[in-house]
Amino acid sequence: VQLQASGGGLVQPGGSLRLSCAASGVTLDYYSTGWFRQAPGKEREGVSCISFSDGSTLDADSVKGRFTISRDNAKNTVYLQMNNLKPEDTATYYCAVEKPHMYCASWTQAYLHKYLESWGQGTLVTVSS
After folding, report:
1. Mean pLDDT of the chain
2. Which residues are within 8 A (CB) of 77 and not within 5 positions of it... i.e. 6 or more apart?
3. How far is CA 12 from the centre of its chain?
4. Gap between the Cα atoms of 52 and 19, Å rounded
C-alpha cells in the first residue's frame, strides 16, 4: 500500500487548501481512509475519515463546518477540502487507510490509530499572515 499526500502550503487565515491522498496497491472503496495531523510538540490527532461502506464521514469537532473529506473512487484518491483556515490548523497532515472493513474506528479517541493499515508521508500546512 502506498499513499501519496499532496496539496499543503502556506495560506493566510481565512483561506482554503485542498489536500489529496492518492492510493496505490489498495482500492479505497474497501478501506476507510482519512487524515491525521500533527503540530509541533503535540500528539498526532485525527482530523477526518470517510467510511468505506457508505461514504459517511467522521470529523473532529475542531474542523466541523470547515473541512470536508471526500473520495473519488475512479481516481482512487481521497481529498480534504479545508476552508476558513485558522493558525491553529498549522500542522503536518498525514493520510492513512484503516484495515479492511473497519468504520473509521482509528479516528476515535477510544481506538486512535489502533486499526490503521498504512500511513502516507506528510504534507505541511502553514496558516499565517
Report:
1. 95
2. 20, 21, 22, 23, 28, 71
3. 20
4. 19
Q: Judge contact between 59 and 76, C-beta under 8 A.
A: no
Those residues whose C-beta lies under 8 Å from the C-beta of residue 92, and which sit 6 or more positions away, are: 8, 37, 38, 39, 122, 123, 124, 125
| 113 phi/psi in degrees, rounded to 5 | 70, -5
Task: Give the dihedral sign, CA 105/107/109/112.
Answer: positive
Helix (H, G, I), strand (E, B) or coil at 106: helix
Q: How far apart are CA 71 and CA 11, in angstroms?
A: 24
Question: What whole-number distance in Å separates Cα of residue 19 and Cα of residue 22?
Answer: 10
pLDDT tens string 44-103 = 999 999 999 889 999 999 999 999 999 999 999 999 999 999 999 999 999 999 998 889
The residue behind cell 492513512 is 96
Question: How many other β-carbons are positioned within 10 Å of the β-carbon of residue 12?
Answer: 10
